[in-house]
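Justification of resources, computational component.

The compute hours requested in this renewal are based largely on the per-chain cost of generating structure records like the one below. Each record pairs the submitted sequence with a full structure-token output. That output is archived, and it is also reused by downstream analysis tasks.
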Amino acid sequence: MQPRQQLLDIWKASMAYCLREVVEEDGRRHRRWHWGGRIESDAVGDAQQLLCLLYPPQELPELSYADPDATGEAVLDALGTLGDPVEIPIRVMRIIKDYMIRHSDDDGVPVYSGGSNMHRVDRSREADPEQRAVDVTEGFALAIPLSIASLIFLADFAPTAERLGRRPLIEERQEVEAMVHKRLLGALIGLLRSFSVAAYDETDEEGRRLIDLINVDGQAPRKIIRRFRDNASEIIGTLRDITLGSGGTAGVEAPTKLFEIGWSWSVVEKAPEIGFVSDQDVQRPGRAQDAPYLYFTVVAIEAVAGLFSPRVIRRNLLNDEEQQLAQALQLRLDVTRRYWASVASFGGGSKWPLEDVPWRTTDGLEYDYYSLLVCAVATDAFGTARGDDDLIRLGRVLIELANRGRITRRALAGETAIEMHFPGVPSELTGIEKIGGPPMRWNMVDFAPLLLKRLIHAASLLSTIGSRAELLDVADQVWDHLARRRLRDGGAANLWDQPHQVYGEIEHFFNDPSWFFTIRVVEAMVLGARFAASDPARSRELERLAHELLLEAEHIYDQELFRGSGAAGPSLSQEIQAVGITIRHAKDIVAERPGTAYSLGVRALLELDRLVSAGRDAETGV
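The structure output for this chain reads:
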């Protein structure tokens, strides 16, 4: 997969597409950043486009370009069209500034609208401009990694700006930083007001569907409700602590209630405002149905989790107001992960609801894509609280989804699985029609790169070597599939996505990149690079064997010292000491690298056997 090289190739392709030559009125030529791709420029798509440039160095310091003196040759080659090592960070800072201004209203208040990502359900009716201007949860969610990556970049660039000694440049950097903080504040508030808790009765249609989903054993509905509430008792207790923004218990404390929690597609209708924040302008009226959407729940969870990564915490990037809002979001993050992990594995028996592919939502939809989303929410909860057994079961679901999605298995003509790749899985944005205009939907076309992310993530949490290897083998096959879907010609060559190249019956042929798809590939490559740099999986059986082997080697070594081999001639003494160093080194690394320790132990035993034999020969004169 070579994730680092893939990221550099994506940067080079992005520069070729995004930097367009313009001619000023005075005849001067220069390159200007082009926003947009397959769809028109909007806050969501442009954030994805910019994150392709900003996100990798946040997670992989060797790809950083904020400090000219520390920028690697490979990075300079990939970003060379931006300029020399000093010009690159200055140009990137101004691209960030352009985004912040471009996606703010006339009063300078950030907007998080979905724009062209919203598709009309009724194509005969024109969309109302106000519909496309509505802030969406994905806009809030993208603003968080975009703001964090921007703040890290600006902090790393600050010493260079000071060293260059240009007062306007220093002030410009500070101005951009203030813009980023304003966008981050609005995003945190937006996610707090988009959180939803939906309660259902057994007789409600949604309630019946939820019971059918989790009732894999065919038990009586009332027994299922009782077990559901027993499992959710701690979750309900946590919901009582949610007091900022939307959410709370929302009636779930009644003993017969079923419920779902997560994020809606936008600020929910009648969401209360957050009173203590300094900037009230970012709190626009809620438009969305007060019900969780699986897709928007996943993007919100990933964004909020990024606030608490070790790199972000060490940097202390958030101000006091942002930290207070982030803590409120962390409460929602934890309870949402626990809820979906509980539902996914409800009953804990021989079959989970998650294993009954495809996942069925409470609004009556069934898609393999939804099973993948549930895997995305549940993976961390399984990995931290339950261990390998549950992760292995989740991994089998991912492998099945790769088959069902016709990624690791050949697609047949007319299969509905192809539609999951294009035009994608639709999600109706209930409530937006109240503004005026037709109902709108959001299309999700990122099944393949999202599956790659989930495979790498699950493999990174596994310690069972065989299961990890199985997931990585499927991940390689998914990458081969994605590599075939790269655009091959034109200005967008080597970006994504051209599904026609894999699924010939898809008639659409694209000349421009989908940043929605490309950023998912970038995220997968970052995960892959981090995984490649991590410690290898440890076999407990191999570790036990290594310990036993080293005990034998150490015992024979002590015998040789007792026999006086260590005090023998210089040559033999040095050899004995070298064996001792090998044994001590093997003991030091046996917990982290049992295979290497085992090999060193074998080498030490062979060397000791040679020395013992040589000593006996010397004694007998043979």
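The longest helix spans residues 137-164. The chain has a mean pLDDT of 91.
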